[in-house]
Structures are given as structure tokens and as C-alpha cells.
């Protein structure tokens, strides 16, 4: 009885902490919005990012306090799952072992090479289609003006709101699918998903925000070169070992994309100034995105999560965190009004739908083939998206750009060939 009273008091203290941090966050946000000087400087994105993180802390900090109390007091050993409250707390924080496994590898399923190839082709085609649509709509929403009924031009600039819409639809899709198939909603403690959720929404926000400072081709270049940080993050988080050919092909892919980008000439890239702000945002995007995919790969292996469970768990936190930040923003009302514009609403709907489908295929790919294979697929998607952008917007590519694309595809085929030979050699040695 005493333990139950204490846990109720702790939860009440966490709620009070949430309220206090929300008030502090609101005051800081009002001070920023009333200071025209901070909003107009080049590095205003840094203040917005810090404010966003402050909004996330209104949810994360009370949760962390509650987790530390449950861990220090051995709450689950004393109480068990006797009450609804204890079962809910166990679902959120019930994992006693915090450390991830020393070696994390993609989930292997015994199947024929033809079935594995068909699965890889399905993931590849789905990711290509979903994210080609997503990339075109992302550029349109963040860079184009929308004509209102009164003839005025409005440019959308609330990256946080766009992240919230995308994650909300993805969560509803995953939740609806899990409920309809009567699967377990989660197979791991909920707090485990918060790590990759935070880095996921920060990386997405940085990606949208970077389009205000750098050209779309520059952003594509940064995504294409992230196979190397993904491999490094895999070594740090999961202590994954990679073969020499994997490092060589990763460098070839990055060099190929650099050649491709420097061989691409268009008015949009010339007219958009590449600033330190944009480059910093892209670096932060790559860092957070690399951690996200590596952490998700670790969760897939340790808890045997399904793609839908991962999609549901990550986006549940993403919705909560972005909603906590948006609830205090005065610009949120402006973004909601812009949703009344039929073209903008349709763009947001298609963007969110393609993002939801893409996320589901991301988790499926990571679970079956690992984070590095997923990154290579997405790298190829970048090359195709540039080609599509050239067709849509009339950009031109030099012979050097064409050589870069060829180098990327050569690296991918070399990787497949080396992987096949290595497997064959290991089977012979057995």
C-alpha cells in the first residue's frame, strides 16, 4: 500500500514538473517571437532548434524522473503487475537490462535466394516510389508559394508542424493495422523507442529547415554520403564489424555522388547560397539519422520487433514530442489556417502518406537486411531523384555528373558481387 501511495505522489510530481517546464518553455518562446532581431539573423534556426528541444523536454524530463525512481526503488520487484497502473508502468519502463547486445546483425530468415531477392526487390521498389514522391513534395512545400483566395502569396515555413503531420498519419496507419490484425502493439519497453524518436524528428526537422539555406541538390548530396556515418554509428552502438569491401564501396558511393553533384548545373543551385547554417543543419541531420537507423536495427534484433510495432512505437513518441512543442507556438494557428488551402492540404496529405509508406518499408528493410543495405538503397534513390528533378525542373547534367552516377551504380554492383563471393567462400570452408 505504501509503495502505491509513493508512486502516485511521484507521478503527481512528474505532472507538476511537466507544467512548470511548459510554463518556462512558453516564456522563452514568447521572448524569442517578440525579439525581431533573433528571428532575422542567419543563425535563427539554432534558437528554434533549442526551443524545439525545450518543448520535447517537457515530456522527456518527467518521464526520465519517473524511470529513475522505478529503477532505483526496484518497483516492479515489489509490486509486480497486480494493478492497472503497475501494468502500464511495466509496459513503459519494465525492461531491467538497459544494455544493448554487443553484436547486432540483421534478422536472418531461412529462405531461398529467390525469395530473398524478391523481398529485396519489393523493398527497393517501394522505397524508391514512396520517397521520390516525398522528395518532390518536400521541395515544393518548403520552397514554393501558395496563392490564397484573396490573391496573396503565402510561403509555408513551419518545419515542426510538417513533422507532426507526417508522424501522426504514420502512427495512425501502424496502430490501425496492428489492431486489425490483433497483433501486440509493442514488443519492447516503450521508453526504448524514445531514443530513436528524438533523433528521428530532429533529423527530419533539420532536413526541412536546411532547404531554407541550401539548394535541393546540396541536400541530396549530404544524404547520399551518409552510408559512411551509418557504418561508423553501427560500430559505436552495436559494435558491428564490416568487411574491407564495404568501406571501399561506401567511399566509392560518396565520391560518385560528389562527382554527380559538381557535374549538375542549374539556376536553382546557383541562386541559393550555401551557408554555414545549411551545412551545419545537414551535418546534424546525418548524425541523427545515422543513430536512428542503427538504434532501430538493434531494437529489431534484441526484441524481435515487427515493422508495424517499430512504426507505431517510434511515431507515438514523435507525435507526443512534436505536439508538446507545437502546443506553445503561436505560428501553429497560422499553419492550421493554411491547411484550408486545398492544394496545400493535398500536398501535406500526399507527403504524409508517402512518408508513412516509406517509414514502414524502412523498418522492414532494416529488420531484414540491416541499416547499411537500407542506406545503399536510399543512396540509389537520391541519384534517381536527381534525374527526376532534372526532368521536372529542367536541370542539366554534365559528363562528369554522368560519370558520378555510373560510379555509384558500379559501387553497388561491386558490393553485391563481393558479398556473394564472401558467402560462397564461407560456405565452402564449412
TrEMBL record:
Q: What membrane topology term does the record carry?
A: Multi-pass membrane protein
Q: Does the keyword Membrane apply?
A: yes
What's in the GO CC field? endoplasmic reticulum membrane; Golgi membrane
Q: Name one Pfam family in it.
A: UAA
Q: Where in the cell is it found?
A: Membrane
> What's the superkingdom here?
Eukaryota
The record lists the membrane-crossing segments as: 46-67, 118-137, 244-262, 268-287, 308-327, 339-362, 369-394, 400-418
Q: Which UniProt keywords apply?
A: Membrane, Transmembrane, Transmembrane helix, Transport
GO terms for MF: 3'-phosphoadenosine 5'-phosphosulfate transmembrane transporter activity
Q: Output the InterPro entries linked to this UniProt entry.
A: SCL35B1-4/HUT1
Family assignment from sequence similarity: Belongs to the nucleotide-sugar transporter family. SLC35B subfamily.
**Could you identify this protein by its name?**
Adenosine 3'-phospho 5'-phosphosulfate transporter 1
The species is Diatraea saccharalis (sugarcane borer)
Amino acid at each position: 500500500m505504501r509503495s502505491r501511495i509513493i508512486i502516485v505522489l511521484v507521478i503527481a510530481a512528474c505532472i507538476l514538473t511537466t507544467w512548470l517546464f511548459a510554463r518556462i518553455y512558453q516564456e522563452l518562446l514568447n521572448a524569442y517571437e517578440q525579439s525581431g532581431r533573433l528571428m532575422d539573423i542567419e543563425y535563427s534556426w539554432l534558437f528554434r532548434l533549442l526551443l524545439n528541444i525545450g518543448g520535447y523536454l517537457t515530456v522527456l524530463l518527467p518521464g526520465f524522473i519517473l524511470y529513475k525512481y522505478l529503477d532505483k526503488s526496484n518497483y516492479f520487484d515489489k509490486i509486480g503487475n497486480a494493478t492497472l497502473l503497475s501494468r502500464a508502468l511495466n509496459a513503459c519502463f519494465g525492461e531491467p537490462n538497459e544494455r544493448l547486445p554487443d553484436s547486432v546483425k540483421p534478422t536472418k530468415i531461412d529462405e531461398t535466394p529467390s525469395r530473398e531477392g524478391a523481398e529485396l526487390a519489393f523493398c527497393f521498389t517501394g522505397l524508391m516510389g514512396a520517397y521520390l514522391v516525398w522528395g518532390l513534395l518536400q521541395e515544393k512545400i518548403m520552397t514554393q508559394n501558395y496563392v490564397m483566395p484573396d490573391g496573396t502569396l503565402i510561403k509555408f515555413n513551419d518545419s515542426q508542424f510538417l513533422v507532426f503531420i507526417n508522424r501522426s498519419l504514420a502512427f495512425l496507419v501502424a496502430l490501425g493495422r496492428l489492431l486489425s490484425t490483433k497483433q501486440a502493439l509493442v514488443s519492447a519497453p516503450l521508453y526504448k523507442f524514445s531514443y530513436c524518436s528524438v533523433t528521428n524528428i530532429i533529423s527530419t526537422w533539420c532536413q526541412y529547415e536546411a532547404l531554407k539555406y541550401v539548394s535541393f541538390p546540396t541536400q541530396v548530396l549530404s544524404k547520399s554520403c551518409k552510408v559512411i556515418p551509418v557504418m561508423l554509428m553501427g560500430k559505436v552502438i552495436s559494435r558491428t564489424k564490416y568487411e574491407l569491401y564495404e568501406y571501399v564501396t561506401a567511399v566509392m558511393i560518396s565520391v560518385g555522388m560528389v562527382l554527380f553533384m559538381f557535374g549538375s548545373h542549374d539556376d536553382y543551385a546557383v541562386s541559393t547560397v550555401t551557408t554555414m547554417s545549411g551545412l551545419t543543419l545537414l551535418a546534424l541531420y546525418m548524425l541523427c539519422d545515422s543513430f536512428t537507423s542503427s538504434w532501430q536495427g538493434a531494437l529489431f534484433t534484441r526484441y524481435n520487433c515487427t515493422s508495424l510495432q517499430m512504426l507505431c512505437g517510434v511515431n507515438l513518441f514523435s507525435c507526443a514530442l512534436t505536439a508538446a512543442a507545437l502546443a506553445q507556438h503561436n505560428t501553429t494557428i497560422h499553419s492550421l489556417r493554411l491547411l484550408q488551402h486545398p492544394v496545400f492540404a493535398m500536398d501535406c496529405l500526399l507527403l504524409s502518406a508517402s512518408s508513412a509508406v516509406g517509414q514502414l518499408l524502412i523498418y522492414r528493410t532494416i529488420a531484414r537486411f540491416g541499416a547499411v543495405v537500407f542506406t545503399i538503397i536510399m543512396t540509389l534513390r537520391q541519384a534517381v531523384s536527381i534525374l527526376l528533378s532534372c526532368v521536372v525542373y529542367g536541370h542539366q547534367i554534365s559528363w562528369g555528373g554522368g560519370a558520378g552516377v555510373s560510379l555509384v551504380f558500379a559501387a553497388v554492383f561491386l558490393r553485391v558481387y563481393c558479398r556473394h563471393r564472401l558467402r560462397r567462400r564461407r560456405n565452402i570452408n564449412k
